[in-house]
Amino acid sequence: MTELLLKLPIIDLSSSDTSSTAASIRQACIEHGFFYLVNHGVEDEVLEKVFLESKKLFSLPLEEKMRLDRKENRGYTPLFAEALDPVSAPKGDPKESYYVGRLEDDSAAVKLNQWPSQEKNLSSLGSGKMFLIYMGESMAMNFHLNGCMTIISAAFFLDPKEDCVVECIESCCSESSPPRFPPIRSGDYLKERFRLTYASDAGL
């Protein structure tokens, strides 16, 4: 199998020079938007298990996957159900997704998580549960490209608390260069993004 590797910056998290590491991450985000991490502390076996169980999940019959249909932004979304950029992809995104939230406490948000049947050994995308605990929210995605290639990716999001106000950093704005966006609560921003992403799915 041919691996698709992009030429991106490689950030080594084992470096004792945290200021230099932070500067490298900042530069990579500005110039590329993505970067590779090495020596991040997550065992290779855990990562391999996440992708193995993701493949099993997305290989299930559609009827079975739809039993985990997204509720409160947790669970499965089928092909073209999301539209992150309706202008470039008016029919929706050519990907399936499976969303999982926090696992490490007994809050209401944790109870929203949906899991495939235990019999199929997919209850936590394998021992990826340890991996997911590191995350604020995570998802596995199965991209279908031109009907001839599929790419599975695992992403995680570390979101601020819902009542956290997100606003432009003072040192990044001035009278001559005011903030482009007004302050907004993290929870309100995410709700609006979800509304727009699933607008076509909801018939909005």
UniProtKB/TrEMBL annotation:
Pfam families: DIOX_N
Domain Non-haem dioxygenase N-terminal, first and last residues per copy: 8-118
InterPro entries for this protein: DIOX_N (IPR026992), IPNS-like_sf (IPR027443)
Annotated keywords: Iron, Metal-binding, Oxidoreductase
GO molecular function: metal ion binding; oxidoreductase activity
Top-rank lineage group of the source organism: Eukaryota
Protein known as: Non-haem dioxygenase N-terminal domain-containing protein
Species whose genome carries this gene: Morus notabilis
